[in-house]
Amino acid sequence: MTKLKLRLSLVTILLFFVSASISAADFRNSRPEALGMSSERLERLDSVMKSYVDNGQLAGQVILVLRNGRIAYAAENGLRNIESGLPMTKDTIFRIASQTKAIVSTGIMILHERGQLDISHPLSRYIPEWADMQVAVAKDSGGYDLVPAERPITLRNLLTHTGGVSYGNGPAAEAWEAAGFQGWYFANKKEPIAKSIARMAALPLDAQPGEQWIYGYNTDILGAVIEKASGLTLEEFLQSEIFEPLGMENTHFYLPRDKADLLAVVYQPKDGGGIEAIPASDGMRSQGLYKTGDGPNMSFSGGAGLLSTATDYAKFLQMTLNGGELNGERILSRKSIELMTTNHLGDIPFRRGQGFGLGFSVLTDLGSRGTLGSIGEYGWGGAYHSTYWVDPAEQLLVVYLTQIIPATGLDDYAKLRSGIYQAIVD
């Protein structure tokens, strides 16, 4: 064997083992230096993030940072339940709210790959009530006029939040509120999600489909599409197609009673400083519905309904970072992940330096955004002040979970990002 062939063989073997290590993602802790990160610099991050708990701004937090499929940094700070003195642990369960959207968007792409739907199809092909929609146009004198939608809403519009659907807070807000659709939760509804979404179609849109980025019930509607196309409930579909293959054992729409003590309590800022638990009777933000297992247990919110852990969500993200596969289980093709994490907005305004893909925001201009990261980074967050992102250029993913709403005056997101990137030394 020539020296060149020998070198090529060694490179091939090395790449195989590196690829296998990333793909396996067994979530073992590694010495940060073995992953191109500095232990000393991560101590800075550790000190800063703990300060939010020590100062009484947060009850607790769980942080998980993976690089090359291994844990570079993990922290469980503070308490998941101050009143009971229960600590944050790696298996603490959180309401991940809008982090649900990426998982449901993945479900749509699974069906797209199988030919059970196509994201270019109109929504009305799956839910006929959404044909011939009306758009509410605000009048200067108050109220609104109704005009016909100029084009149908497509599934891709819903994936990119360009379907013209808000959370019921547009020009026709009173009509949406009267119909029982306002705010981002379905968990208190006593009807299956398919029936809710069919009723919603009677309400006017906030914009012409395909013309504006409007955050709203788009992914909840996609949950109903999954049910229609698959013949399963959204819960059954996600369980069989994503949660079980990826080993996401603590991800649920409704919490089993035997896991009740693992659920983190939701807190809110208190007048004069500090935080307090949100009363269990406080509707969508309370822990009562999930913790006791009460409620209808039939309304699966594809936009905000899931509960999960940092480890479970990191498994899902690592699958996307691996190009659709984890531990020998392929969820999507590499090309589907590529399409999901590409900006689809074109000239539609969004955030400075960012676009939006099929379920994720996508970083398109590092300088315009002005914070540390890499072009191609994708992520999102949840209403209870959780966040995540994936940085393919650095083979890095971050999951940050806590439970506070509103997150008044907190700058922990920025400190978390700076602390992670300053620790990269390779």
What would you say this structure looks like, in words?
With 426 residues, the protein is α+β, with helices and mostly antiparallel strands. It folds into two domains: 27-92 and 248-283 and 308-421, DD-peptidase/beta-lactamase superfamily (Beta-lactamase, 3-Layer(aba) Sandwich); 105-235, DD-peptidase/beta-lactamase superfamily (Beta-lactamase, 3-Layer(aba) Sandwich). 32% of the residues lie in helices and 16% in strands. The protein is built from 13 helices and 16 strands. It has helices at residues 3-24, 39-54, 100-114, 155-159, 173-178, 193-200, 218-230, 234-246, 288-292, 310-321, 334-340, 366-369, 412-421; strands at 60-67, 70-81, 86-87, 94-95, 134-138, 144-148, 267-269, 275-277, 307-308, 325-326, 329-330, 354-356, 361-363, 378-382, 386-391, 396-401. An eight-stranded antiparallel beta sheet has the order 3-2-1-16-15-14-13-12. A two-stranded antiparallel sheet has the order 4-9. Strands 5-6 form a two-stranded antiparallel sheet. The chain is globular, with a radius of gyration of 22 Å.
Biggest sheet: strand arrangement:
3-2-1-16-15-14-13-12
Radius of gyration: 22 Å
CATH superfamily annotation of the largest domain: DD-peptidase/beta-lactamase superfamily
What level of helicity do the residues show? 25-40%
Distance between the termini: 33 Å
* Average pLDDT figure: 90
Question: Which architecture of the largest domain per CATH?
Answer: 3-Layer(aba) Sandwich
CATH topology of the largest domain: Beta-lactamase
Shape: globular
Residue share in β-strands: 15-25%
Write down the CATH class of the largest domain.
Answer: Alpha Beta
Count structural domains: 2
